[in-house]
Amino acid sequence: xxxxxxxxxxxxxxxxxxxxxxxxxxxxxxxxxxxxxxxxxxxxxxxxxxxxxxxxxxxxxxxxxxxxxxxxxxxxxxxxxxxxxxxxxxxxxxxxxxxxx
Length: 101
Known about the structure:
Blueprint: H1 3-10, H2 13-32, H3 39-60, H4 68-95
Helix pairs in contact: 2-3, 3-4
């Protein structure tokens, strides 16, 4: 692979989004795996999940130009599932005491 091919690949919009997805994955994984398990960390990671989900749905699944019913159905699933996970985690963080190791 020569420099011109790499340069043209990096100028591709999907490649930039893919690299941002990787960066956001690493960021959210580092926050989620840290010793700071807090409500704000959960909200931060769930926000990143929403951003990544929207990019994947719009650009990689091609639903940005799909029919509104299909796009809204998939987006609704993303929002509802992320909200369920967030509420469950926040509830467990607020109302259950974890033993310290």
